[in-house]
Amino acid sequence: MRFFSDNAAPAHPKVIEAIAASNRVDTAYDGDEWSQRLDGAFSDLFGTEVRALWVSTGTAANCLALAALCPPYGGIICHRDAHIEVDEAGAPGFFTGGAKLMLLDGPGAKITPEAVRDYCDLIRKDVHQVQPAAISITNATEYGLVYRAAEVAALGQLAKERSLALHMDGARIANALATTGESPSDMTWRAGVDALSFGFVKNGGLNAEALILFRTELFDEVAIRRKRAGHLSSKGRTLAAQILALLEDGLWLENARAANGVAQQLATAAPHRLAYPVEANEIFLNVSAAEAAQLRSQGFDFYDWGPGEIRFVTSWDQQGEAVERLAAALAAL
Amino acid sequence: MRFFSDNAAPAHPKVIEAIAASNRVDTAYDGDEWSQRLDGAFSDLFGTEVRALWVSTGTAANCLALAALCPPYGGIICHRDAHIEVDEAGAPGFFTGGAKLMLLDGPGAKITPEAVRDYCDLIRKDVHQVQPAAISITNATEYGLVYRAAEVAALGQLAKERSLALHMDGARIANALATTGESPSDMTWRAGVDALSFGFVKNGGLNAEALILFRTELFDEVAIRRKRAGHLSSKGRTLAAQILALLEDGLWLENARAANGVAQQLATAAPHRLAYPVEANEIFLNVSAAEAAQLRSQGFDFYDWGPGEIRFVTSWDQQGEAVERLAAALAAL
Amino acid sequence: MRFFSDNAAPAHPKVIEAIAASNRVDTAYDGDEWSQRLDGAFSDLFGTEVRALWVSTGTAANCLALAALCPPYGGIICHRDAHIEVDEAGAPGFFTGGAKLMLLDGPGAKITPEAVRDYCDLIRKDVHQVQPAAISITNATEYGLVYRAAEVAALGQLAKERSLALHMDGARIANALATTGESPSDMTWRAGVDALSFGFVKNGGLNAEALILFRTELFDEVAIRRKRAGHLSSKGRTLAAQILALLEDGLWLENARAANGVAQQLATAAPHRLAYPVEANEIFLNVSAAEAAQLRSQGFDFYDWGPGEIRFVTSWDQQGEAVERLAAALAAL
Amino acid sequence: MRFFSDNAAPAHPKVIEAIAASNRVDTAYDGDEWSQRLDGAFSDLFGTEVRALWVSTGTAANCLALAALCPPYGGIICHRDAHIEVDEAGAPGFFTGGAKLMLLDGPGAKITPEAVRDYCDLIRKDVHQVQPAAISITNATEYGLVYRAAEVAALGQLAKERSLALHMDGARIANALATTGESPSDMTWRAGVDALSFGFVKNGGLNAEALILFRTELFDEVAIRRKRAGHLSSKGRTLAAQILALLEDGLWLENARAANGVAQQLATAAPHRLAYPVEANEIFLNVSAAEAAQLRSQGFDFYDWGPGEIRFVTSWDQQGEAVERLAAALAAL
């Protein structure tokens, strides 16, 4: 029974249908009808004019955004546990041409305006020290915590004061919005976000993510960088169609709610074991090695996060029986 | 009636079926069963042990290979009309960290050992001039010509003498093999090719290309670079499954033969107008502006290549009636 | 008798004196009194407010300028024989993060507005092809020809129309100005030049070149890039002092006149052998291999430029007797 | 009275003499007689065959070495306070093409084999996480502490076990050797160091540093990278001559002993205020803001390192009277 990663889940059937339906002759690259509808669909969702590009991975979305927001000689402030720092093989350095990730601490992989301010204040304003150019936050975070719109806005305010760009890695933005019930616009551009990696692959998509540019003037540069990084698929319609299928009738939000719901079900079963509050679709539990082995012997598949800590991730497709068995097993710990 | 680009064609139905069939829970990235079968499938095809990686675009395949074969301070010898020079937005410079493309002339976008030798001999062996590290050829070329295995081997021999790596951009390698009837092994590693971008997207695939490493020791570095460039899809099974579907029962070769056949049919209709011999699935014709306009008014969609020159590209799926009408129209010029 | 390269010449005695005189305790990097005087000295020379930075090589000056004027994904239009293309080991690719040099032909390594316009017009305005961002010209050129201010202005006008930046590699700008008698301002910013590599090392300096920014807002970025490239010497006063010594009383122009004068003396001796007009301090002669060997046997040191062509370069310090002997030898050919 | 930085000191008179003496016609770049003597001079000093290159800054020496020792996708383990991390404007990212600095803690900017081992053990061996490729240590450290040869050897042993290269930033290697009395060979290649940035500028030089390659096969690549980074001065003899002047009769060691001696004199005056042991030419003192102001009002120039901490740096040329006055002032705190 798989609770290992939302990356392991299948795509939603409607996504596969959309791929099949878009499999016909059309203009190559992003000139097709599906790709051409993206800007409009996301502008509707966000209630403002945005530009949107499909890419095939979250790493590409994050790093194309960062390359547009930070010069090669700049710094990107993020959490020490951010995906861009820990799990992207140095891709930000590659895409930006050598920019520096500036690492902050903070519980649950969240950063605060205070931490950003303190960090910046310690940097001498000279040519010997790298100067920060951007902040990148992940919502929901790598530990399944959620930034509320007001928290993002506080960071956005600071970013503005310090002339820093603000990027949001939204690999699980759907889960965050499902939890908070806040609007996509409040969570992003109204809070000062310049660019959002809008994740679909962990949430029912197959291999399409969206990069949303609230600063629409960045589009031309990002489009060039996408091509230059080998991310301009010649049959881009297959990516656009996936995204449109998930946007339609709020399927993306429905999927996220399903995954979050399962996470809550599991959290409720073992409230005293939680390493962090469960605010999205990830559950981190404190267990002994023996307990972990016992769970594994019962057929549950999960991630050994660190000594005494395990991680479960729930997906949009998670089945009822396996979930109930896991909840029972956790409750029995 | 579309004769514009093989990129505009749909994927083969078996490819869509394979995507759907692989849409189930499995290990993320390239740990799934489909991805794990790639090395074996290509090793069988090439009759030697190879390592194979899926990527989503030909640009990514080409540039990951070049980055592994050429240091940032090296040069890559290629034709002035090569895709890597003309149509990849400078991606080789991005992936390699600034390597220099060294441009040769030659009819039909083919380069010869003599041209390579002459170019190299003019470079001073000092630190002021960039020293070549690799040769990259395209087969079939951007003008639809084909290198025979013996021609590749002659370049491979020179490459070896000069300590140059040899890369083949095989965006249309299937068309080249369909034309020559030569074996995949004779065309590549036996001829000295170190890495091959094996194209599927123009030949019935959706968004999966394969990078084949005949120098298997390059695999680890290339795998890291793939991740670092944002090309490690989390549900890689969907890419691997496409490739395997096209390899099965030689579908890839069958598709290429179909496209080549249509090209021959068109070439036969207008033999005196051909700008180049038609050896793959591209037809370049010398026509006046008035003739081009006339063809377009008849509903044919093609590419204005340059003054007095137009390009048709045929695809695996090309329909009989449209082809016959185009052949008739060309014959009537 | 050395006529090989102006790089081989010694520095002017006043430069050595200036180094010694500046060898005392002062603020590190560019905070010292000499460095602080550079902006003013060059603003006086150019009759407008400029920002100036010392660097230790012409390659650094050129490439720092180009990195500020061209994005990683842009193109730099230059002559096929430009120093940045031929003799800087790919440094422009390194400093810019992979920008592409776009090579034009033209006699004597000069480019014309027509050639630039024709080149640009052939580039499709899409993301697949690299778009030009800058023009770089060398004055005097690698073949010792000179752009007059009006020629530069014509390129500057075109650059403006096409939104291209304009860089001048002035490794031998002193020689060009000495020949034309035109003012530094007419030759540069009034003609549309954005940044100038002002060469001193070939003209009496030891290891100091100046990068002049007519677009003063580029200074901060260039200063960071200079540090980041390891070119911010901690005792920068020794570089600034060299430059100031050469600027004082027009020593730089006097040196260039001396070198140019010797070149004219040699050119006059063999007018029928000149491969190019002699407009600066380089003389290219058509000679047979036997004649070249004969000259060498007489003790003259020069460069074999290519089959049947040799190059002499004259320096600020060239001695009368050796020059007269060479002139006689050339006249006797 | 300047105790601010050894970068502010003048060059030794013999260095200026050497520059003047080498100011004559000779082969350009590094073909001159002085440059050609460097390999031999350093091979003698280190008692083994080494290759040596001059560069004009320590940043260049460090980053050229790191670029040769670490691929773009690798990691360089160093202390959080290392110069390459804190004071080089991100130059390692630029020269390597985006490699990641992996930061360790440790008192006095020293790192231990245990810290390196622990750090490495936490890195998953997959393509998602950057894998370390090199260790870089600074001797003497940024806090004026010294690694003994045995400590370096312990790191060298670990580096070998883990297939990591070992670089030493020796901006103040002379001070470290003067303190320990250990041999240059024991401190470097016998301890497993692959490349050493041998600093001269802080120790009596003007603008010449040496990069020593104990792995001599790296020379060709480093020489190309030096040119490509704009660091191949055309009159390199002026850099080589400086280095040779400082090597002659052990002047470099004599200078370091003088600076270290002054530092000990100051340390002895205020033993209870020392933030770190004084092992080279830097003294960090714990003082109140009032005390710092008082010292400054007495005419002493120093660096405010952080809250309650000030830094003095002594130089080879430090004058007796100023030192005595400072020692008295410190003793009176």
Rg of chain A, alpha carbons: 20 Å
From the N-terminal CA to the C-terminal CA of chain A, the straight-line distance is: 18 Å
Order of helices and strands of chain A: HHEHEHHEHEHEHHEEHHHEHEEH
Multimer state = homotetramer
The helicity of chain A comes to 40-55%
* Helix/sheet category of chain A: alpha/beta
Q: Which overall shape of chain A is indicated by the principal axes computed on the Cα atoms?
A: globular
Q: What's the helix count of chain A?
A: 14
The fraction of residues assigned to DSSP E strands of chain A is 15-25%
The biggest sheet of chain A amounts to: 7 strands, mixed
Number of strands of chain A: 10
From the structure above, extract its key features.
homotetramer; 3-stranded antiparallel beta sheet; alpha/beta; 14 helices; 333 residues; 10 strands; globular
Care to describe what's here?
The structure is a homotetramer of 333-residue chains. Chain A has 333 residues and is an alpha/beta fold. Helices cover 42% and strands 16% of the residues of chain A. Chain A contains 14 helices and 10 strands. In chain A, the strands form 2 sheets. Chain A has a 7-stranded mixed beta sheet, with helices on both faces. The two termini of chain A are 18 Å apart. The mean pLDDT of chain A is 97. The interface between B and D is medium-sized, with 15 and 15 residues.
